[in-house]
């Protein structure tokens, strides 16, 4: 009671968020039980047949299950890593552009692709990346043989990851730019007096200041560890690259969403969430233990 | 630890949510009881319940999946418009909308499922397109929608019955144990049966004739590519524009006829020599077709990235004037090919027959005569009212004779307009703009008689002046070249083969079909692209059969025997 | 000064050039969309347009401007974005403050945090959510676009991490002066958190501007659609094989150039917001105010 009296203001501050969470997150979470049902819309949750783990079994018993899960993991993890690394480096490089107008213009331009949907970009990339397209013409002028970026199993994942980074890095940079804005300028002034060159300043002041943000964004990104980007893959994949490009979400779309198999769809969702939760727990503990830093 | 603390809350939320779901479930069960009561009542009332106009008014509830392109004028909405007013005044039928949704990304099907899940009131009458076939099957299985065959026999008008009789198979998809559970929505026949469109100006300049066999086709393609009449460099020409991204059996840029030349149509169920249904993609003829495609890809006759091309992409080089041949519907001269001349002024597209294989075989896929279903609720008190409405449309709108009431169109000032002298004005000159008010009707497109449009086109092709509404419509809306193309299409009328399996998804299909489709697409494309040898087709057939295909074939044939 | 050294100057030039090339690569698709929107339909349908309009035409823009549904949907999007962002900012700001405290200062902090994270990872799916929306009477209501998305765990966690960077001395001084936590939050934290608030606001705006599925599912009529939902109905290719269609309708559907114009006009407002917000990212702003 004493702590409540002391902290009542904190609790009050959290009330609006908690009300909305209960209404729109916790109550609907009851639907998770559908993962264990052969859900039929007209029977509702209360009347649908319980099937235990059948829905999960189907995910793992298909001949191509492992391939699909592996594709998902590799694409998602690589995207996660590079979507942290590239914006991080880009933010630092942008920080070195001394003309404010130039800096802001670049910043604005790289943020544009985020606003085009994959449906549109898919059509554009089909042309840009075709064997006689713009990209191959440029590579050709360096003597490179035409590459079938979207139709070759050896290149498809690379293409998917690269185009995703290209679309999102400008947008992902924003959070690092905000963090850069929070660095105390007197740190640099002191370093300058100590005779540290710019690289040393970057290495010992700028980068360490950004690291907490990298850890936070990285940990939260783990929530998407099994989301390899449905919209993108769905618009780019084709029969030639099923082997390396089919992911859990496209597979669920074809089998569950299109056929209205809600139970199966929920089961896959639950599976993905559970894996993400475990990974977030682990990285939270690691950050706490090694860096003494609570991410949230 | 923390997880432990969270558990009670999670448990609580599960309870809460299932209590919500429970409530709605109960509501529905109660509704179900009412329904059986109503059904009994209806039986007693149906003696001469059918009227041309109802007084007092009857109400039909419905839901709408609104096409994103559908326009409204005069501040109207799908719930309240010229068509609902018309139904009220003309028949005493009050059409009440429970909800509507703009139908994109399958939103209508999703919303129907959610409405069912949440125990919302379900509509008396609902029309569902083939795109949402699974939800239609779900609704039939739910028991909320009634058997309609007897209603149809009792109430449907002669015109409607004749139209429905043009292909008795249209009922199959919506039958359960011999009971007809949904009214098929009829559509014009042959709408997506394709022909080949070829650059006649190129043929003329090369002094070549339209190809009639696959061999001749190869010579033409080679000439288009290597001695291009417009002087295009070989690598800029696409002699035959086709694509495989979505399917090998589609509506534009379709390659299925190439397999047809060797006696099979992929990705559909065909009647085999023994009278049983056979999955076209595992027929031995596929191998020869794949070999041809592989060869054509290597020679550059088809797009180098055909595996990445969907239907619309295949039309791009055709419109740009760099493609020589494109397979597609007979109405393609109205869209998109009419634009080719704007890019290449000399271009002339001509429709030609599908070329034959070495033994003279020609096959192409045929369009079903139906494109959806209308379901009638068990709770509906006056199901005959729906027939009053639809009969009228069949008798007066589907193919009216000159001078009848709906001869000019449905609603003046909406989908047609007459000027002061009584002549019809062009659509784009209707005051306030043209809107396709036919789509405001309870059944998509109102009422269509499968062969009516083709008959109208043939009359025009034979030089008749347009007199009936349909003739005028195709003359105005389908482009100048269309009647001639329709005639070409019908020259091979007996070469169109429909997918013979239209039943609900079978048990094994649910578990296995996606994987089987995946390896099929993968194998075929990899063979064409030379990443797998041609013989891997044989191992694909073995895998397909062992991986559930054999069982599916059995189930499909059981279904076929039940409807035959 | 370091930037006067020769090495740094060489680096600076190379660096700037590289970034400019990168920036140019990023705008190619948008330039293409823009070029298509100013081209004639026949050229666009034939995919003949590259980065410069072919057969220049402003027809597509005329048609777009003439479409009342399109214009109205922009208004709904603006409303949704402004209201939604304001609400999200308030909730995020309030929630992040207590969560940024040490465990010793606020017992129960960790439970709250994990509750938030839990909802970020797990969800019950579409069906129960739909039922809740229906029972709350939010169906077909503008608020369905604003309320459910108002709590965004990602933003709250970002904010709380920004808050941790605020010097403790400031808060302590305020509390000693007798200010309660609400006063501290609004009079001390608010003014020095402008860069982070700008970041959160931007993310929230973009989220609202781009969300389309809620509009589609919960709104009956297209006259209540936000812009993103409207655009979605335009850009998605439909499966023509399952619908009977005639060439006249196909022509209506496949308006490549109009589509491009709509995409461009639709993206313009949110693109313009960014340069405006940039001025809050000025280096040292946070600490600058501390010194005073």
What's the arrangement of secondary structure elements?
The complex is a heterotrimer of chains A (296), B (564) and C (292).
Chain A: H1 2-26, E1 37-38, H2 44-47, E2 49-50, H3 54-61, H4 65-95, H5 100-110, H6 118-128, H7 134-141, H8 156-181, H9 185-193, H10 198-221, H11 230-236, H12 242-245, H13 248-257, H14 262-291
Antiparallel strand pairs in A: 1-2
Helix pairs in contact in A: 3-14, 4-8, 4-10, 5-8, 6-11, 8-10, 13-14
Chain B: H1 2-45, E1 58-66, H2 82-91, E2 93-102, H3 107-117, E3 125-129, H4 133-141, H5 149-155, H6 158-165, E4 175-176, E5 179-180, E6 183-186, E7 194-199, H7 200-206, H8 214-226, E8 238-240, H9 256-260, E9 269-271, E10 277-279, H10 285-299, H11 311-320, E11 323-329, H12 340-343, E12 349-352, E13 364-365, E14 370-376, H13 383-398, H14 452-461, H15 469-477, H16 482-491, E15 496-497, H17 507-528, H18 536-563
Chain C: H1 6-37, H2 41-45, H3 59-66, H4 68-99, H5 109-121, H6 126-135, H7 153-164, H8 168-176, H9 181-192, H10 194-210, H11 213-218, H12 227-235, H13 247-253, H14 256-278, H15 285-291
Low-confidence stretches of chain B: 1-46
Note poorly predicted spans of chain A. Answer: none
Number of strands of chain B: 15
Strand content of chain B: 5-15%
Fold-level CATH name of chain A: MetI-like fold
CATH architecture identity of the largest domain in chain B: 3-Layer(aba) Sandwich
Q: What's the number of structural domains of chain B?
A: 2
Which oligomeric state applies?
A: heterotrimer
- How are the strands of the largest sheet of chain B arranged? 8-11-7-12
Structural class of chain B comes to: alpha/beta
Biggest interface goes to: A-C, 88 and 99 residues
């Amino acid at each position: 009671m004493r702590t409540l009296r002391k902290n009542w203001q904190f609790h009050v501050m959290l009330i609006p968020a908690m009300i909305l969470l209960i209404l729109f997150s916790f109550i609907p979470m009851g639907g998770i039980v559908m993962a264990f049902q052969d859900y039929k819309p007209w029977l509702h949750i209360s009347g649908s047949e319980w099937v235990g783990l059948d829905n999960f079994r189907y995910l793992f018993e298909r001949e191509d299950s492992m391939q699909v899960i592996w594709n998902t993991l590799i694409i998602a993890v690589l995207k996660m890593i590079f979507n942290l690394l590239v914006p991080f480096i880009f933010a630092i490089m942008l920080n070195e552009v001394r003309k404010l107008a130039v800096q802001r213009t670049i910043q604005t331009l790289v943020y544009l692709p985020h606003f085009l949907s994959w449906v549109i970009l898919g059509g554009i990339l089909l042309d840009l990346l075709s064997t006689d397209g713009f990209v191959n013409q440029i590579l050709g002028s360096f003597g490179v043989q035409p590459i079938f970026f979207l139709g070759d199993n050896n290149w498809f994942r690379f293409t998917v990851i690269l185009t995703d980074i290209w679309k999102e890095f400008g947008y992902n940079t924003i959070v690092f730019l905000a963090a850069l804005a929070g660095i105390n300028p007197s740190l640099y002034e002191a370093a300058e007096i100590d005779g540290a060159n710019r690289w040393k300043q970057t290495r010992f002041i700028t980068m360490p200041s950004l690291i907490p943000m990298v850890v936070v964004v990285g940990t939260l990104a783990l929530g998407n560890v099994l989301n390899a980007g449905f919209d993108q893959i769905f618009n780019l994949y084709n029969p030639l690259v099923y082997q390396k490009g089919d992911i859990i979400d496209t597979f669920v779309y074809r089998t569950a969403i299109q056929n209205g198999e809600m139970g199966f769809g929920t089961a896959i969702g639950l599976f993905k969430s559970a894996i993400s939760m475990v990974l977030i727990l682990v990285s939270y503990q690691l950050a706490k233990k090694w860096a003494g830093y609570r991410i949230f | 630890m923390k997880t432990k603390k969270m558990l009670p809350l999670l448990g609580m939320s599960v309870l809460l949510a299932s209590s919500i779901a429970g409530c709605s479930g109960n509501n529905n069960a109660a509704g179900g009881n009412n329904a059986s009561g109503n059904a009994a009542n209806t039986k007693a009332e149906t003696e001469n319940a059918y009227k041309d106009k109802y007084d007092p008014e009857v109400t039909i509830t419905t839901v709408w999946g609104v096409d994103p392109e559908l326009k409204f004028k005069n501040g109207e909405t799908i719930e309240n418009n010229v068509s609902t007013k018309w139904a009220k005044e003309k028949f005493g039928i009050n059409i009440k909308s429970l909800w509507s949704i703009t139908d994109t990304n399958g939103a209508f099907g999703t919303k129907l499922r959610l409405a069912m899940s949440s125990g919302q009131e379900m509509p008396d009458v609902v029309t569902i397109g083939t795109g949402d076939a699974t939800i239609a099957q779900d609704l039939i299985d739910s028991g909320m929608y009634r058997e309609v065959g007897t209603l149809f026999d009792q109430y449907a008008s002669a015109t409607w019955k004749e139209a429905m009789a043009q292909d008795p198979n249209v009922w199959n998809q919506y039958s359960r144990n011999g009971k007809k559970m949904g009214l098929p929505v009829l559509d014009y026949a042959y709408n997506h049966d394709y022909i080949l469109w070829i650059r006649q100006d190129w043929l003329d300049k090369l002094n070549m004739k339209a190809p009639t066999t696959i061999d001749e086709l190869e010579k033409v393609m080679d000439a288009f590519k290597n001695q291009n009449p417009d002087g295009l460099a070989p690598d800029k020409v696409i002699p035959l524009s086709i694509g495989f991204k979505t399917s090998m059996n589609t509506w534009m840029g379709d390659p299925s006829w190439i397999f047809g030349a060797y006696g099979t149509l992929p990705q559909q169920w065909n009647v085999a020599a023994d009278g049983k249904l056979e999955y076209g993609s595992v027929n031995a003829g596929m191998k020869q077709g794949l070999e041809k495609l592989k060869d054509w890809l290597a020679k550059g006759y088809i797009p180098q990235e055909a595996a990445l091309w969907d239907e619309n992409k295949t039309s791009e080089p055709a419109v740009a004037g760099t493609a020589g041949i494109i397979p597609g519907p007979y109405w393609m001269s109205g869209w998109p090919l009419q634009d080719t001349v704007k890019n290449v002024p000399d271009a002339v597209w001509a429709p030609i027959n599908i070329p034959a294989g070495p033994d003279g075989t020609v096959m192409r896929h045929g369009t079903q005569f139906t494109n959806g279903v209308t379901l009638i609720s068990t709770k509906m008190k006056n199901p005959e009212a729906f027939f009053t409405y639809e009969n009228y449309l069949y008798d007066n709108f589907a193919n009216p004779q000159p001078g009848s009431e709906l001869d000019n169109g449905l609603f003046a000032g909406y989908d047609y307009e007459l000027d002061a002298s009584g002549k019809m004005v062009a659509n784009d000159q209707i005051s306030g703009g043209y809107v396709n008010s036919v789509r405001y009707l309870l059944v998509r497109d109102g009422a269509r008689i499968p062969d009516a449009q083709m008959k109208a086109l043939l009359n025009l092709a034979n030089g008749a002046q347009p007199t009936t509404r349909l003739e005028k419509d195709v003359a105005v809306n389908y482009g100048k070249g269309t009647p001639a193309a329709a005639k070409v299409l019908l020259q091979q009328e007996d070469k169109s083969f429909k997918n013979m399996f239209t039943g609900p998804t079978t048990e094994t299909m649910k578990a296995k079909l996606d994987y089987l489709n995946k390896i099929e697409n993968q194998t075929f494309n990899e063979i064409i692209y030379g990443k797998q040898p041609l013989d891997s087709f044989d191992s694909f057939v073995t895998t397909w059969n062992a991986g559930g295909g054999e069982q599916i074939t059995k189930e499909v044939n059981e279904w076929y025997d039940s409807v035959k | 000064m370091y930037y006067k050294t020769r090495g740094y100057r060489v680096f600076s030039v190379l660096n700037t050039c590289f970034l400019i090339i990168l920036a140019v690569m990023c705008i190619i698709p948008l330039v293409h969309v823009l070029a298509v929107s100013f081209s004639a339909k026949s050229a666009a349908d034939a995919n003949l347009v590259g980065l410069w309009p072919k057969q220049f035409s402003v027809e597509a823009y005329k048609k777009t401007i003439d479409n009342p549904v399109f214009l109205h949907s922009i208004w709904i999007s603006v409303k949704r974005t402004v209201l939604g962002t304001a609400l999200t900012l308030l909730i995020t700001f309030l929630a992040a403050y207590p969560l940024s405290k040490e465990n010793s200062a606020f017992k129960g902090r960790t439970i709250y945090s994990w509750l938030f994270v839990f909802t970020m990872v797990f969800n019950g799916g579409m069906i129960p959510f739909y039922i809740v929306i229906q029972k709350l009477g939010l169906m077909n209501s503008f608020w369905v676009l604003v309320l459910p998305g108002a709590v965004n765990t990602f933003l709250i966690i970002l904010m709380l991490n920004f808050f941790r960077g605020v010097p403790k001395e400031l808060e302590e001084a305020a509390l000693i002066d007798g200010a309660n936590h609400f006063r501290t939050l609004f009079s001390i934290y608010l003014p020095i958190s402008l860069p982070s608030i700008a970041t959160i606001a931007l993310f929230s705006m973009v989220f609202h501007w781009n969300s389309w599925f809620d509009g589609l599912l919960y709104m009956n009529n297209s006259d209540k659609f936000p812009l993103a939902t409207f655009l979605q109905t335009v850009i998605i290719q439909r499966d023509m094989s399952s619908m009977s269609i005639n060439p006249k309708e196909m022509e209506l559907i496949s308006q490549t150039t109009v589509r491009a114009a709509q995409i461009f006009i639709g993206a313009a407002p949110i693109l313009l917001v960014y340069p405006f917000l940039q001025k809050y990212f000025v280096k040292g702003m946070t600490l600058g105010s501390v010194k005073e």
